[in-house]
Specification:
mainly alpha, 128 residues, DNA polymerase, domain 1
Length: 128
């Protein structure tokens, strides 16, 4: 019974750690959304959990538009993801709500309010 008890103890510990990590991740997402709402109170925060699905057909149909990689922090993969969501020009990016942009790019890693706001500001500067 001693070995069995240790196995059960390890399993219970593992489940507990998983629950704590899930709770922490949820808190981080809520903090991010609160920060976005504070920075842009007039834009409603999207509630859908949509993820970007990049398909070759979508990319082939996308207008080449502006070279979005000219914006600091946007590399080829991010530019490709933006094009797949219909953002192909600096003007379109500059006029997109930070909340909408966050929702559209939810599948990308390292997305922060500062990055999104920086992209929008740079795009606005490139349109003038």
């Amino acid at each position: 019974m001693g070995r069995f008890g240790r196995v059960i103890g390890v399993l219970v510990f593992g489940v507990g750690v998983g629950i704590v990590i899930a709770y922490w991740l949820k808190q981080q997402e809520e903090a991010f959304q609160r920060q976005m709402r504070q920075q842009h109170p007039k834009s409603p925060m999207p509630t859908s959990e949509t993820q970007i699905i990049l398909s070759q057909k979508t990319l082939d149909q996308a207008d080449s538009g502006d070279d979005l990689t000219r914006i600091n922090g946007i590399g080829p993969k991010t530019a490709q993801a933006l094009r797949a969501t219909g953002i192909t020009s600096f003007a379109t990016l500059a006029s997109t709500s930070p909340h909408d942009l966050h929702d559209k790019l939810k599948g990308l890693r390292g997305l922060t309010p500062e990055k999104i706001n920086g992209w929008i500001e740079q795009a606005a500067g490139l349109t003038s």
